[in-house]
Amino acid sequence: MDDMLKEFVVEALDLATNVEEHLLSLERNPGDMNTLNAVFRSFHTIKGGAGFMNLTAMVSACHLTENLFDALRTGQVAVTPEAIEAALEASGFVADQLTALNNGVAPDQLSTMPKSLEAMLTDAIESKGVSKKSAASVTAAPKASPVATAVAAPAPAAAQNQDGNIDWEAYYRAVTPAGTLPEAVVETYEAPQPANIREENEAVKSSLSNADIKQNAPAKEESIRIDAVKLNVLLEVAGESVQAANQAAVLLEKLGQFKFDGQAAPLMSALTETLTRASRYSTELQRATLATRMQPVGRLFQKFPRLVRELARDLGKEVDLNITGAETEVDRVVVDSLYDPLVHMLRNALDHGIETSEERLISNKSPRSTISLKAWQEASSVMIEVSDDGKGMDAQRLRDKAISKGLINSHDARTDDEAFQLVFLPGFSTKEVASSVSGRGVGMDVVKTAVERHRGAIRIASELGKGTTFLIRLPIELSIVPTMVVRTDGASLALPMATVQRVVELPETFESVGGQPVLRDLGRPLPVKSLGKTLGYSPSSERVGIVIAAPNPYILSVDSVDGTADLVIKPLTCISTPGITGTARSAEGELVLVISLSFLIDGCKVRELMTS
Description:
The chain is an alpha+beta fold. Helices cover about 45% and strands about 20% of the residues. Strand 6 and strand 7 (about 465-475) form a beta hairpin. The radius of gyration is 31 Å and the shape is flat. One of its GO terms (molecular function) is phosphorelay sensor kinase activity.
């Protein structure tokens, strides 16, 4: 893909996404003229660029949709569900074409506009009260103007050189309205033009990138687009520089224990100052690089209103999707990887959790249900919550279903919280018959796997008859994690600070409840679990406890605490070790194993389940 086409695709994809959001807003507020005009302008701009790039199918779809919205905003056509549906289909077709281009499909290999889409748009324009005269004028307008013809078709013959290449200067003059250029060509455009044609001219001109036309030079850009791979390399280099600076600082501290006389003393002083400055700059470089990867989750959330709308319509349910916290920023990799998990969760909420309007009325609920999608920052984590006001989850039914499928035995999942976690088991489903939406036993296990791949954790809270809430906790920054470094059986291990509440001293003997050692912390009895024993290390004398913040809090016993550190995490790619999510290097250069966040929140049960 050449640079000009790539730039068009990126900008048009942003416009197409915003169009979909505007259309769903317009469906709720049909009289919103600002939204009507915004959609009209977006299709104008996409159409202009598509005509410039000779993307005829996209031009045709945008042109018909433009005509529809011209009629909508002038009152010739009412804003009906049929009109919105036609516009959504057109927006989807345009987005599909742009995505195909973005994935490397050649422009001449793109599909043509479906006849069904053309019929939908034509019906929306003509069959909703538009007079024949109005329809004729809308249809004839492009033919009456050479500008519209230039937008909807390839470059005119006059704008092509003898060798077949496009003469950009001639093309520019062909689409420039009256009075813009001093040459005689102005006489060709003496007749006044309709407002929509003038706006179309502006859309086409904005797509041109002719460096020779100084009077139309673009404004200074506030941002640039950089390949994500380059950013990843930069982040890795920045992280390694911080790690090297930390190790150099430790070495310098050890050198400071020796006495330096003569010329060595000022050299050591200068070395200390230089290293301090280098360490500060490397840390700033790392933070600045991390900031370039941060993106608001709203970029992800804005894809879901249409998904929920269409799925609710297919299921015959009335559902509103409320989105809050879209401005919350998180690592770009997290944003990109959360789409499929959130789709699975929303589909399950709609199919399993939300009742029909009739069922809700019987339960004295509003016939229209609500699904909430929230995001917020909490310490060094980003929290994403998907909740509904549906029928909730029956813990006992979940247990019975898992036992009948042979996924657990009768002694497992005794608490409701453990029962809710059963939905993440591969092959688990409460549906007797699979549908096109859910019921095949895949989906929620994919959610848990995707979340844990990025060192996150997911929990479920539900109340029968009230609704269900899924809560995802993810690190804001994937490559650097604030940790507490502990030691057990001589091994150095790092616990994510997101789960650490405080450090306590452990006695030599404990109270016992059901054979489990228990220690009272702030008046509450908490079970004590050995980190070394859980991970398979040799037994040792563990006299330090870490109070872990989890749905069921507990104390993790270790040999000692070495302190806290922001570690650059390297994920495990070749092997999979229960409880371990990656490795890092300490300031002294020692290898540190990083404990998984979900492993700690689940109560260190991974190994127990595997060996049982």
